[in-house]
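lol ok so funny story. i was supposed to be doing the assay writeup but got distracted and ended up predicting the structure for this chain instead. priorities right. anyway since i did it might as well share w the group, maybe its usefull for someone
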Amino acid sequence: MIESNKYTCQPIRSDSLNGTFNMNAFNKSKSSGIELKGIKIFKELSIGDLTLIITYYDSLDAVTYWFNLISGDLTLIDSISTPAYFGFMEDVEINFNNNSIKFGFFDTNDRWTLKLSNKGRYSFKPSDIFRRPSNMIFSKRYLCLAKK
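and the output, tada:
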């Protein structure tokens, strides 16, 4: 995992029912993009041919983050979101050796860990299903997000 800066974003629409926004993330070296949840890129990390793009949307009362794993051909491989928190993500620790990220949120003692699996796995636990987009319910899970 190394920090990168290959993508830019452009918000494209609001879904007024759930307050989330979508954006197009454009690879700076290609003319095409991919649609992701959120309106801004928080952090971007490269893992071989894969890219992890962390996006977020800040509403008036909460912030939601999405972790998006993208292949070199701009295919969304996996995506998972955090619950909505009142404050922004902070105390981000990236462990480049074991492909994991630890973080917390402003004014909480909550600590979260995101791990990337090279093989992926199938899981139908509620925590794995409800934090993912509906088109990824039956896909392999490469990202594992857990509250410690």
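The chain is about 5% helix and 60% strand. The helical segments are 126-129.
back to the writeup now i swear
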